[in-house]
Amino acid sequence: MVTVRVLRSMKERGEKIASLTAYDASFATVLDEAGVEVILVGDSLGMVVQGRDSTIPVTVDDMVYHSRAVASGCKHAMLMVDMPFMSYSAIDRALVNAARLMQEGGAHVVKLEGTANQQEVVRHLEANGVPVCAHLGLRPQFVHKLGGYRVQGRDTKAARALIDDAQALEDAGADVLLLECVPSALAAEITARVSAPVIGIGAGRDCDGQVLVLYDMLGVTPGRRPRFAKDFLVDSGSVANAVASYIKAVKDRTFPTSEHTFQ
Ligand code: KIV
Q: b/e map of 207-234 (b: 16 or more CB within 10 Å)?
């Protein structure tokens, strides 16, 4: 089974980590059998499954429901589950909700969107045996604070702040970092500075691994596909082949290309 130790040793060996989201048992089985290392039950389910216009309405009950379904198809991969909006706004609340995601949902690692402000929460979860992935850069739960879904860390001050946040969250004990929509050079610098594995989405090819929303990589997300995503189904003929070709492209570093990257 893939554990945080396995991800750390992959980083040390320079082997890329392949991750995709899933929200149900059938897709989880396809991903698991194809050899995806991390299956993420993302709160993106609010948008791609529930049809909401952001991830903000997603609840802990929603996450438990989908996580439990995914867990039943997940035999080998690490199961990472998002803590939804406001579910980790205080340390006691974070612990109660993380416990639900692990005990009822089967999560191996919980993911929360953070800056250095979440250090105390991360420390408290880790001290109680909850492995944490800290999601930095574009944090969709903060869309109204950030003023939209925008690339983060573009100017020198913002880049410096992101490096400091990543370091602070690693110091608090975060086992994995996830960087969304940051310039590739900045993502490369953060990846080189921290010992925790860094999984990127729209963060260039130098992160330790890549993640995509499953429906983006199958070309079924309604509307315009994000720049960092690629439709792997169009040339593959089946979902299983599309997932295999995504994993291969991540491992041999042919995805992402500059076309999927921000400068
Ligand atoms: O919710 C999600 O699917 C995510 C990915 C965008 C990484 O956090």
A: bbbbbbbbbbbbeebeeebbebbbebbe
Q: For residues 202 and 256, what is the distance between their CA atoms, to the nearest angstrom?
A: 8
Q: Name the amino acid, one letter, at 67.
A: S
Tokens of 133: 């992935």
Number of domains observed in the structure of the chain = 1
Contact 94, 87 (CB under 8 A): yes
Task: Give backbone dihedrals phi and psi of 126, rounded to 5 degrees, phi first.
Answer: -60, -40
Tens of pLDDT, residue by residue over 6-29, are 999 999 999 999 999 999 999 999
**pLDDT value of position 210:** 98
205: helix, coil or strand? coil
Measured from the CB, is residue 213 less than 6 Å from ligand 1?
yes
Q: Where are the beta strands (DSSP E) in the chain?
A: 17-21, 38-41, 78-82, 109-113, 132-137, 176-180, 198-201, 209-212
CA of 180 to the centre of ligand 1 (A): 8
Counting from 1 in the atom list of ligand 1, the atom nearest the Cα of 213 is 3
Ligand 1 pocket check: which of 21, 142, 149 to mutate, most ligand atoms within 8 Å of Cβ?
A: 21
Ligand 1: centre distance to CA 156 (Å): 26
Write out the residue range of the structural domain in which residue 64 sits: 4-260
Pocket probe mutation, ligand 1, options 19, 36, 40, 199, max atoms within 8 Å of Cβ: 40
Question: In this predicted structure, what is the pLDDT of residue 221?
Answer: 86
Backbone angles phi, psi at 167, to 5 degrees: -65, -45
For 59-66, what is the mean pLDDT?
98
Q: Which residues, other chains included, contact 201 with Cβ-Cβ below 8 Å and sequence gap of 6+?
A: 178, 179, 180, 181, 210, 211, 212, 228
